[in-house]
Write a structure and sequence with these properties.
It is built from 8 helices and no strands. The protein has 168 residues and is mainly α. It has a domain of 93 residues: Four Helix Bundle (Hemerythrin (Met), subunit A) (Up-down Bundle), CATH 1.20.120.1630. The protein is globular, with a radius of gyration of 18 Å.
Length: 168
Amino acid sequence: MGKGLRLFDFKNWLKPKHHKRLWGVGFVGALATTTLMFLLLRVEKVFVLQTYHLGRGWFLAIFFIIFLELALILFWALLSLPPKNRGILLSTKGIYFFIRHPIYTTIIFHLNILTSLWFGSYILLISIPVQYLLWSRLVVAEEEYLISIFGQEYLDYMSHTPRFIPWG
């Protein structure tokens, strides 16, 4: 496979300035999110909290729209900044023009909404602000890391591009 066709360039990622990207915020945040979702679903079941049920048509329509949006954001992020360039190049085009962390956005919002739809869980919908705050705290370390790589260019980018919500 030609050098330009590889999705991951581990040789560059293993250089000292990029070692943090291998075990950065994404893994920790995703683990925290899924753990919290699992615990909330257990709490909901143990305390027999109110759930909801959508008709099959509504469920499929809403699930499909949310899943399609999730897939669109992830695909757009992949096109805007391929994995081999993460932490090496700063992308401010594509979806990164609107939000700094599109992949984390899908975890915070789309994953919670899809799981809530699947289990009919109000508590997961209510937990989205908590997830947002959790990720806002976690992403600070990654942004400090990106500032150390890109300097003023990233600070300028941060000043005019919101973290997770385009209008936020």
